[in-house]
Amino acid sequence: RKEVEQDPGPFNVPEGATVAFNCTYSNSASQSFFWYRQDCRKEPKLLMSVYSSGNEDGRFTAQLNRASQYISLLIRDSKLSDSATYLCVVNMRRVTGFQKLVFGTGTRLLVSP
Amino acid sequence: SAVISQKPSRDICQRGTSLTIQCQVDSQVTMMFWYRQQPGQSLTLIATANQGSEATYESGFVIDKFPISRPNLTFSTLTVSNLSPEDSSIYLCSVEEQGAGTGELFFGEGSRLTVL
């Protein structure tokens, strides 16, 4: 089983739509979670961290379910500029104390006019 | 946030040769991370480079193939040796903001390698 699994998509949605991405992780000892955004031929950039209580940043809402080892990202009122690949990232702190960020394969979103 | 410069941004190399990628950060950082992103794939950690010590390699990556230097707190190089077409990939340097403890990584723009 992959450490971090995502539906690769693509998700094709019209402008204004609401879209949700899911991600599961295998290591129950994982400590922190993130969604990164990667535009075509660009480097990944942090979109938002994911907290146990759930968190919202404008049109973006992230949620974490530790019991089910499941993370989600909800995008409301989709914009054309939201078209990108969204990477689910899990921080697995090792016994040495150093962290290792494990990236999912990403979910591609295409927002059309 | 850290600003990271990578060189070269892209290169085309012949099989059997080597390519060295440079990564320069605008601030001092303890650890620098080297990732690989193969076509259509996500990022895979190659190794963690600490200043003043040997790099720590992930499973499936070895020092002979991916030697790393870390001469100071703002600079690192990754060499991809004895190139084969399977090494065609984007190589990314990244750092965590010093002292932040947030787990957020900042990435260079990547070095796109094509091996013929």
Characterise the protein shown here.
With 113 residues, chain A is an all-beta fold. In chain A, 0% of the residues lie in helices and 56% in strands. With 116 residues, chain B is an all-beta fold. Chain B has strands at 4-7, 10-13, 19-25, 31-37, 43-50, 56-57, 68-72, 75-80, 89-96, 105-107, 111-115. The N and C termini of chain B lie far apart (36 Å).
Features:
heterodimer, A: 113 residues, mainly beta, 5-stranded antiparallel beta sheet, 0% helix, globular, B: 116 residues, 4-stranded antiparallel beta sheet
Mean pLDDT of chain A: 91
Number of distinct helices of chain B:
0
Strand content of chain A: over 45%
Order of helices and strands of chain A: EEEEEEEEEEE
Low-confidence stretches of chain A: none
- Rg of chain A, alpha carbons: 14 Å
Name the overall outline of chain B. globular
Structural class of chain B: mainly beta
- Largest contact between protein chains? A-B, 19 and 20 residues
Number of strands of chain B: 11
How many β-strands of chain A, per DSSP? 11
Protein topology:
The complex is a heterodimer of chains A (113) and B (116).
Chain A: E1 4-6, E2 11-14, E3 19-25, E4 32-38, E5 45-50, E6 55-57, E7 60-65, E8 70-75, E9 84-93, E10 99-103, E11 107-112
Chain B: E1 4-7, E2 10-13, E3 19-25, E4 31-37, E5 43-50, E6 56-57, E7 68-72, E8 75-80, E9 89-96, E10 105-107, E11 111-115
Parallel strand pairs in B: 2-11
Antiparallel strand pairs in B: 1-3, 3-8, 4-5, 4-9, 5-6, 7-8, 9-10, 9-11
